[in-house]
Design the sequence.
């Protein structure tokens, strides 16, 4: 049974994954890997990893955050 907070987190995760769906490294053709930390919408953070900094730039731009 989901709480309101975790529902918000799931929506955030889904929205973030949707934004990254079309992101691929132009050099290596790799998609970014995403990891979420935090149990509530207020504390959730997104950890991006990928083959190179260029992919991370594109991924950060796609989700609209700088890390
Ligand atoms: Zn790359």
Sequence:
């Amino acid at each position: 049974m989901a709480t309101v907070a975790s529902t918000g987190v799931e929506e955030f995760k889904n929205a973030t994954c949707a934004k990254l769906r079309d992101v691929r490294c132009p050099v290596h053709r790799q998609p970014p890997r995403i990891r979420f930390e935090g149990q509530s919408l207020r504390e959730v953070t997104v950890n991006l990893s990928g083959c190179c900094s260029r992919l991370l730039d594109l991924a950060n731009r796609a989700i609209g955050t700088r890390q």
